[in-house]
Structures are given as C-alpha cells and as structure tokens.
Amino acid sequence: MDTIYALASARGKAGVAVVRISGPKAHDALAMMTTVPKTRQASLRKLMWQGILLDEALVLVFDHGASFTGESSVELHLHGGQAVVAAVLGALASIEGLRSAEAGEFTRRALENGCLDLTQVEGLADLIDAETEAQRVQSLRVLSGAIGKKVDGWRRDLVRAGALLEATIDFVDEDVPIDVMPEVHELLAGLKTELTKEIEGSKIAERVREGFEVAIVGRPNIGKSTLLNAFAGRKAAITSEIAGTTRDVIEVRMDVDGLAVTFLDTAGLRDTEDKVEALGVDLAIERADAADLRIFLTDGADEIVGVLPQDGDLIVLGKADTEGDKVSDLVRVSGLTGEGVSSLLLAVSKSLSDRAAAAGTLTRARHRNAIVGAVHALDAALDELAKPFAVVELVAEELRLAARSLEVLLGRIDVEVLLGEIFASFCIGK
User: Fold this and answer.
1) Which of 3, 49, 130, 314 suits a disulfide with 136, CB 3.0-4.6 Å?
2) What is the pLDDT of residues 391-430, one digit of tens each?
C-alpha cells in the first residue's frame, strides 16, 4: 500500500499548517527529515532536507493501529506560510514510495481499516460542512458512532431470534423443550417498532442537516420582499410599489437560533394574464407547498390564492405600518418599520425547533432506505409467523435479509458504488 501525504489544514496563509502522512513508510519518511520522536508525544523538531532547513515544526507520530487511519502516520504542525508548506510538500514528493493523497483518501483508509463505519464517515463530512449549532451537534453525534451503537443492539435482537429459529430447524425431528415462537415474535415486533420510530425521526434529522425552508407567501405588493430584506438585514430582494415585481423565487439562508433556515420570497399569488408572471406564480405555489413552514402575509380581508395553510403555518398582517391595514386582529408585522419582525422570527424559531426536537439518529436518505429494507423483511417474517403452519426456514431467511440491510447501513457490504461519490465531497487532506 502506498504511503500518502497532504496538507490537512486549509490552504492559504495561517498561523499553523498541518501536513499529514499515512502509510507503511510514514515513519521512515520522517526519519529522512529529522529524528523520530516517541509516539503520541508532541515534540519540536527541525525539518531538514538535503542540508537545508525547511522549518521548525511540532511533530506527532502514531503507530499502526493507533491513528485516525489505522496506519502508521505522522503529523507535521508547520508555520503556516505558503512557502513553508510548499517546501515540505516538495520534499515529501521526492521520497520514493510516497504520493499525494486523493480527495478523502485518509478517511477512506480509516473506513477500510475498520476505524470508522460508513455512517461515521458521513457524520465527519457533515461536521466539516456544519454551519449551525444544531448541525454541529447532530453530525458530532453521528461521528461518535451513535448509529453503529444502535445497529449493534438491533443485530443482537436479530441474532437472538435467528438462534431460536435455528434451534427449531436443527431439532425438527425432536421435541424442543419450550415453544420459542412467542419470544421470537416479541423480539421482531419490538425491533420493528423501534426501526419504524427511527424512520419517522430521520426526515426531521435530514432537514436539520440540509436546512429548513420557510416560504413567505401572499398577494402581490403585500410586503413579502420587504419582510425578507428585514429578516436578512440587507437588500436581498428588489422592492417596489408596482405589483408583480417578484417573478422568481429569491432565497436567503440564515442561522435562526442554531438552525439552518432558507427563507423564500415568492411571487405574489393572484390570477394573471401575464405569461411570465403566471410562471412565477406557479413556481411560488410549488415551492410554498414543498416548504417546511409558510408565512402568509395578508391584509386581513384578502383570500389566499393557490396555497392552503397547513398546521403550524403563520398568518400575519402584512404592511402593518399603513393605516388601512390596522383594522385586523391578526399579529402585525412590517418589514419597513421592523414592527413585529423579531416576534415573527421567534415564532419561526419555536416552530422549527419543536420539529427538530423529534429528530432521530439517521440523517440521510441512504440511512432511511436501509432501515426501510430491514422493516420490510421484518414485516415478511412476522406475516409468516402469523400463519397456522409457519415455515421457519422462510422466517429465518427474512431475518438474514434484515441483518443484511443493517450491514449496508454501516457500509460493510454493497456500498462500493457509493464510496466514490461520498469521498469526492471531502477535501484532499481529509
């Protein structure tokens, strides 16, 4: 196996730059530049190459089986000047048996060496990309192995149920001391309930990871764009007294109390003969229907066209700064004066935070699909068990299929086709 190296910290000038080396020749490569310190002990060393001082660096050495990748590895904490980094990388490039790492190759080796499972790899990618506190907490939980720990418990139930079934198969011509089927049924029914709960929570967890969408909807010239600008604290959308100014969907992504939220300013909802505006209205309806939450701006009398409010949606009085709109008993908001804007943001935060509280451990569609496969297998097993003369061998096969789905979830089988796509999103030094 090749020994690989790469800059593991961000490119550009910095106080410290970290170069990582991993593979069988990592320690030998370091020995060509300086004396190798004790493992897992930070040591100050002068890095020399062909008689030239490259840098004075903090060096960390890890043995095989005791590093991030599971291989012998070295970390060089250099002064973060670009010339320093270039000089060290140039020296490493000239050492036979070393090559520059590919995108995500360090993490891929950690997966291949059993240091991480695939869900932890995905959690690491999400942690690097995390923009908000909720995303950080969720991705760190996945990286810590929360999904793998749950899978271990689920597999124990499957193994126990499978062992009981195998006993009835092995002793088919003899009397089994006790009827094991009630325990098998209890194990499988309990497992199905737990997996179903995980599936339900996965959709919210996905929204936390990807971000919620909140659509601002209402008739033309009701103050949607002005409200979006007030949320953003900048002029993100063009505002005008001319109705129908907004034709496309304008998006502003924000951190709302630790949650990633994209606010959508949509075209005014009305019947129109203008073909371009009609396209904008259709797009507004489509995006509003797909959003996680809708803010309806109204004057208190107009009917909402095209989009029906759903449970939890917020209906507020728009342009509350104008005299004519003060007749309504709705909550008032004005993007122009700022009246009610903070309270409306607080209401959005509470609604989405309440939903986020129900988030499960599974954070991706791939996770959910694997668990759905396991549930389908459990359904088939329970259906067979419910028959008067259940075929035990068929039940045992369904349990094997359920276990296989869990193995797919952790990346132990049938995921090779996914790895290239997953690791392509990683930086070179990770």
Assistant:
1) 130
2) 888 999 999 999 999 999 998 876 666 677 677 777 777 7
Q: How many C-beta atoms surround the C-beta of residue 174 within 10 A?
A: 7
| CATH number corresponding to 211-356 | 3.40.50.300
Q: Give the 3-state secondary structure of residue 305.
A: coil
Distance CA 198, CA 185 (A): 20
CA-to-CA distance for 189 and 205, rounded, in angstroms?
A: 24
Q: Which two tokens stand for residue 146?
A: 């929360």
Q: Which amino acid is at 208?
A: V
Tokens of 313: 């949606």
Could you give the angle at the alpha carbon of 347 between the alpha carbons of 343 and 352, nearest 5°? Answer: 150
Show the beta-strand stretches assigned E in 173-326: 212-218, 250-256, 259-265, 293-298, 314-317
The ranges assigned to domains in the chain are 3-115, 124-207+364-411, 211-356
Pick the CATH number of 124-207+364-411 from 1.20.120.430, 3.40.50.720, 1.20.80.10, 2.60.130.10: 1.20.120.430
- What letter represents residue 406's amino acid? L
* Number of C-beta neighbours around residue 49 at 10 A: 17
The rounded distance, in Å, linking the Cα atoms of 285 and 235 is 24
In CATH terms, the fold of domain 3-115 is Gyrase A; domain 2 (3.30.1360)
pTM above 0.90, yes or no: no
